[in-house]
Design a protein that fits this description.
The chain is an alpha+beta fold. It contains 15 helices and 18 strands.
């Protein structure tokens, strides 16, 4: 059965001349869409409330006939797995339907259905939303995983479907001898990573993932399909580079500029458990070390809570170990603390990405979630963030982690290529950052409240030390002044872009740009 868009809308119960919108939440590669937390009154295309309007549930059978992909409902056998996101803390959420979208046309059909009813929506790429926004209660999940194609072009660009996971992107690029700077978690979707900025182990040499974005195919709130670039819809193109997923539309395909893939060297320094003072010395020395390091060097410093806290330093270097080792010697000398172990290994681009992903001993197939035949399980965790613009007192930082067993503070170096752009060149504002800080705690549903208290205390302590920004891809429900923390002075322009492309707030959720 085939029906045109006007017939589809009529079957859903609305006329072609008037479209009534409901709550939205979703879009952009990884969804930030709201679950059924709030249900504002229905609004018409003008954005004004429709007096007396009452949303009827969608006729899911009509949407099924419209999709090329599958629509899974709670009674379907595959629904139980298809509805799940990455974070197990949100496994209790039950979307009304999961649409396996195979094309932009499928996304259009989903938006047509959701816009006509009071139905929360979420576009899902990898499903790694820190707050589980990829799984809206009673809503419609637009699962973009079927759109995972990666095509490397002869001109060095790569076209990537919004459902591709990072390990799939890395494998395809490595086969062509190219690279794209992106994250380290292999199961993260390219969509959410890019739209929030895209911090990773090659960031200092090659920039953020969003800095490599040439163009994107976007389905907007009114179901138009746009190809945006520097020359076409430039404001939307600007917003997609760091403005966060779920705010402006559903990206179905990205085109990135890539670089030739060089040989890389990975390293790890594990410092022995000792006094808090020795750990503080390493943290203080590391901050100054990365501030002065060449852009070829990317590093992180992980402080694990305890009595006393412990730390380790790892990273990736674009070049040979002969050039890296003197830099590591410099860090050890500055820290005045010898590591208990020191490993340095030269690797190819793909092998280095698998090493950083924790998949060094696995096949590519195993470096996938267990639900897709891989070995990587989902996780239950809480996490928040801050952004460091200057070195902080090492003793004070380590003091925040004292006694917090099970909580890690991950400092990821910035600078280099990231700082070469002005803060308003893209929507990502943290161009002058020294490092990002992620505070992470594995937990269980029963322990989530206590873990949340712990990570928030460290976050607020870093804020008191001067690290007041935050990274939108580590989205945080209780972050004070979150709009400014995520976007800085770019917030006003982002809100204007949101009003222009989504005046009825189809794509809205608790921390959407429209609500900042």
């Amino acid at each position: 059965m085939t029906i045109d868009r006007r017939g589809f809308l009529a079957a859903l119960g609305v006329g072609g001349a008037m479209v009534v919108t409901g709550t939205g939440a979703g879009a952009g590669g990884v969804a930030r869409g709201a679950a059924a937390f709030e249900r504002p009154p229905l609004r018409g295309v003008s954005g004004r409330r429709v007096p007396g309007s009452v949303a009827a549930p969608p006729d899911w059978s009509v949407l099924k006939t419209r999709l090329d992909g599958r629509l899974l409902l709670p009674q379907d056998q595959e629904y139980g797995v298809a509805r799940l996101g990455y974070n197990e803390l949100y496994d209790g959420r039950l979307p009304a339907a999961v649409a396996r979208c195979t094309s932009a046309a499928d996304v259009q059909s989903c938006l047509d259905a959701a816009r006509c009813h009071e139905v929360p929506i979420a576009a899902r790429s990898g499903g790694h939303s820190y707050l589980g926004y990829s799984v809206p209660n009673g809503g419609l999940v637009m699962d973009l995983r079927p759109m995972a194609q990666v095509h490397v072009q002869s001109d060095g660009t790569v076209q990537v479907g919004a459902g591709a996971r990072l390990i799939e992107v890395y494998a395809a690029l490595a086969q062509a001898g190219r690279l794209l700077p992106a994250g380290s978690c292999p199961t993260v979707g390219i969509g959410g990573l890019t739209l929030g900025g895209g911090i990773g182990v090659l960031t200092r040499k090659y920039g953020l993932t969003c800095d490599r974005l040439v163009s994107a195919d976007v389905v907007t709130a009114d179901s138009r399909v746009l190809t945006v670039s520097e020359c076409s819809e430039p404001d939307l193109y600007w917003a997609l580079r760091g403005g966060g997923g779920g705010n402006f539309g559903v990206v179905t395909r990205f085109t990135f500029d890539t670089e030739p893939a060089p040989a890389l060297t990975v390293f790890s320094l594990r410092f022995p458990a000792g006094s808090a003072g020795s750990v503080a010395s390493v943290v203080g020395a590391w901050q100054q070390w990365v501030a002065d390091a060449p852009p070829e060097l990317w590093s992180n410093c992980v402080v694990s809570g305890g009595t006393p806290p412990t730390c380790r330093v790892g990273g990736c270097y674009v070049g040979a170990d002969s050039a890296l080792n003197p830099l590591l010697d410099r860090l050890v000398t500055a820290a005045a603390t010898q590591p208990g172990s020191r490993t340095v290994h030269g690797k190819s681009y793909l092998d280095a990405m698998m090493y950083m992903a924790g998949c060094a001993d696995d096949t590519l197939a195993q470096c996938h979630p267990t639900s897709e035949g891989g070995r990587l399980p989902r996780a239950a965790f809480v996490a928040v963030s801050r952004v460091l613009t200057a070195p902080l007192d090492g003793q004070a930082v380590v003091g925040l982690m004292a006694g917090r067993v099970g909580t890690d503070l991950l400092l990821d170096s910035m600078g280099g290529a990231v700082s070469r752009l002005a803060p308003d060149a893209t929507a990502f504002p943290h161009r002058s950052a020294l490092a990002t800080a992620q505070i992470y705690a594995s937990t269980t549903p029963a322990g989530a409240a206590a873990a949340t208290v712990a990570v928030n205390a460290v976050r607020d302590g870093l804020g008191a030390l001067g690290a007041t920004g935050a990274y939108v891809n580590y989205i945080d429900a209780s972050l004070p002044d979150w709009g400014t923390a995520y976007y800085g002075e770019n917030l006003a322009r982002l809100k204007a872009v949101s009003r222009h492309y989504d005046p009825d707030q189809v794509f809205t959720f608790p921390q959407s740009v429209a609500r900042a």
